[in-house]
Design brief:
Distance between the termini: 37 Å
Strand content: 15-25%
CATH architecture of the largest domain: 3-Layer(aba) Sandwich
CATH topology of the largest domain: Aspartate Aminotransferase, domain 2
Bound molecules: pyridoxal-5'-phosphate
Number of strands: 14
Low-confidence stretches: none
Number of domains: 2
CATH class of the largest domain: Alpha Beta
Helix content: 40-55%
Strand order of the largest sheet: 2-10-9-8-5-3-4
CATH superfamily of the largest domain: Type I PLP-dependent aspartate aminotransferase-like (Major domain)
Structural class: alpha/beta
Length: about 375
């Protein structure tokens, strides 16, 4: 029996605020009845502010992986080349999915410590004089590495090359925590999920879709049924869906959107930027390495911390879980056991962060990991001096 709250500091799923839980605590209802339609229409409209778009936003009852698939099958035909960039494990998984679905990913190699290189993408596009490449797919915030790629820079090179490929961006762990501007940045398809910056439990995923991408989908794509955007448009216009939506989660989404807009999106982003900076101050204070090697691309949603040589990240995480009832993110794939990840996204304040960082520092000590004292102190100093 444990007392007090578990600290869920993985970079998603994140902690759902009580306000969102209370909004979901209601009777299951008729998803074709009038009350639901009014609520869902409002959600579909107000989501546009979160995505910073005038485009349609589709909601699928699915994990984020479903919205990845929807983005690909609506826009690409079997055999279509698609340019993807290895920013980490999530980019790798999206590329594997593209292969399994019969597309031809050109996977640009990355070292998991830097973001998607816009210049290199530009060079690939320049070489593609026949415009065979139908889409450029990038993960905005690769949750495995804590690197936030520069999406406007990628849009710029695409425009410079005059390349007509669609730009598709995974924002599953950035939307609602790190600034993302669908329309201003010319993103054709946005992929998002409910359980990271959007304050909800897992179970919803999203595609924001430009007119250009919608036209491509209507003219072709791959055979699809469940993920078809077009089927959504008619019912969505009046707040309904072609199949049973996740009604309860949508009531939670209504509340989550309200919370984000009440705080103000720019304030939400500033809060996460401040907590990201404080976390990095702590990591430096411990004398440990931040996995991301480009300070301009540090993620404000999570920080991946590199373990000193010879010590395992998973043993440290286990020590922290056993001793302090806190879950931290594990290292994935190439960096398994080499890094641990501190989530600082979603419903989060200064004391949540300090509880988290104190737990890490106590864990480093208890697990016998070589480190300097004073990381948590450095974060406190930063937080006390800034607001
Ligand atoms: C979590 C995550 C995914 C996968 O989402 P699921 O909801 O687990 O399917 C994909 N991309 C990024 C960047 C993520 O953070």
């Amino acid at each position: 029996m444990k007392s007090g709250r578990h600290f869920l500091q993985i970079p998603g799923p994140t902690n759902t605020p009580d306000r969102v839980f209370r909004a979901m605590h209601r009777a299951v209802m008729d998803h074709r009845g009038p009350e639901f339609g009014v609520m869902a229409k409002g959600v579909l409209d107000d989501l546009k502010a979160i995505f910073k778009t005038q485009n349609r936003v589709f909601i699928f009852p699915a994990s984020g992986t479903g919205a990845w698939e929807a983005a690909l099958v609506n826009t690409l035909a079997p055999g279509d080349p698609v340019l993807m960039y290895e920013t980490g494990q999530f980019a790798t998984l999206w590329k594997k999915m593209a292969e399994r679905l019969g597309f031809e990913p050109i996977f640009m190699q990355g070292d998991w410590r830097h973001g998607a290189n816009a210049e290199a993408i530009g060079a690939q596009l320049k070489a593609d004089t026949s415009h065979a490449i139908k889409a450029v797919c990038v993960v905005h915030n690769d949750t495995s590495t804590g690197i936030t790629s520069d999406i406007p820079a990628i849009r710029r090179v695409m425009d410079e090359m005059g390349h007509p490929a669609l730009l598709m961006v995974d924002t599953i762990s950035s939307l609602g925590s790190i600034d993302f501007r669908t329309d201003e940045w010319g993103v054709d398809v946005v992929v998002a999920g409910s359980q990271k910056g959007l304050l909800l439990p897992p179970g919803l995923s999203f595609n924001a879709v430009s007119d250009k991408a919608m036209a491509v989908a209507d003219a072709g794509g791959t055979k699809r049924s469940y993920w078809d955007w077009h089927d959504m448009t008619g019912p969505n216009d009046s707040g309904y869906f072609p199949y049973t939506p996740a009604t309860t989660l949508l009531y939670g989404l209504r509340e989550a959107i309200d919370m984000l807009l009440e705080e103000g999106l720019e304030n939400v982003f500033a809060r996460h930027a401040r907590h990201g900076e404080a976390t990095r101050a702590a990591v430096r204070g411990w004398g440990l390495d931040i996995l991301c090697q480009d300070p301009a691309l540090y993620s404000n949603a999570l920080t991946a911390v590199v373990m000193p040589d010879g010590t395992g990240a998973d043993a440290l995480r286990q020590t922290i879980l056993d001793g302090f009832d806190m879950s931290l993110g594990t290292g994935l794939n190439k960096i398994a056991d080499r890094v641990f990840r501190i989530g600082h996204l979603g419903d989060f304040n200064d004391l949540t962060l300090m509880g988290t960082l104190c737990g890490v520092e106590m864990g480093l000590q208890r697990a016998g990991v070589a480190h300097d004292k004073g990381g948590a102190q450095a974060a406190m100093d930063f937080l006390a001096a800034s607001r």
